[in-house]
Amino acid sequence: MAVVAVLAVLAQLPPQVPTQPKTHHWLTPAVGQSGGVCRATGTAKEHGDIIEIKEWGRGDPLGTEETCATKCGRSSRCKGYEFYSVPKSFSRCELHAKTPTHIALREGATCKVKGAPMPGFVPLPPLADLGPCLKANLREAHLPGDPEFRAANKCRNRRGDISNPDPVAVARVHSVSEVEAAVQCVVAAGIDACARAGAHGFENDACCSGGGSALTSL
Q1: How do residues 56-101 score in pLDDT, each as one tens digit?
Q2: Residue range(s) defining the domain that contains residue 132
Q3: Among 117, 148, 176, where does a domain finish?
Q4: Strand, coil or helix: 181
Q5: Dist. CA 109–CA 129, nearest whole Å
Q6: CA of 168: how far to CAs of 52, 128, 141, 192, in Å?
Q7: Are residues 107 and 129 located together in one domain of the fold?
Q8: What secondary structure letter does DSSP report for 153?
Q9: Comparing C-alpha atoms, which of 60, 43, 22 is closest to residue 96?
Q10: Which pTM does this prediction carry?
């Protein structure tokens, strides 16, 4: 699976999580209830076609339904999301490629179907336009074939148990807004992002591992 290396050079990210603009109207499944886990007829065990599962640990400020809805809204493949939260334990977000048709009741779970986009919402370009999306929003974005790509990607892999494919792009970010823009471009493309930051990562030429793993070290 293709990955994008996001090289973070921020000294510190702000502790607060900014409010995320609502991308779409969110509807209940056709049966009219949203208080449960998503189900879709015509899929294996009616569990739906899951694009991504993201979990957050106790106290993580990103582990909210708002974050889950934004992830779905920014993905052209996502037709609905399931958010499940266990207070003081963890929360989980599932993005579904097939429109949820009904729910299975479960306390703490919510299932929503993507409706019409909000006024002013502009979807990000698909994978074919990943490069232009990054270059339009970042000061530094390097693609395979660019003269600077090899130097920007510079990666030495000393571990035989980690495969080391080249990323499809290297983005060096200089601000919180550039982090957000890079992530939004990647999400819209439907691929994974890995990140490296700090002296240890750069001195050791840290790189993306194989298999589409997402590495975050900001």
Answers
A1: 888 888 889 998 998 898 888 899 999 999 988 999 999 998 999 9
A2: 3-16+122-203
A3: 117
A4: helix
A5: 35
A6: 20, 11, 11, 10
A7: no
A8: H
A9: 43
A10: 0.54
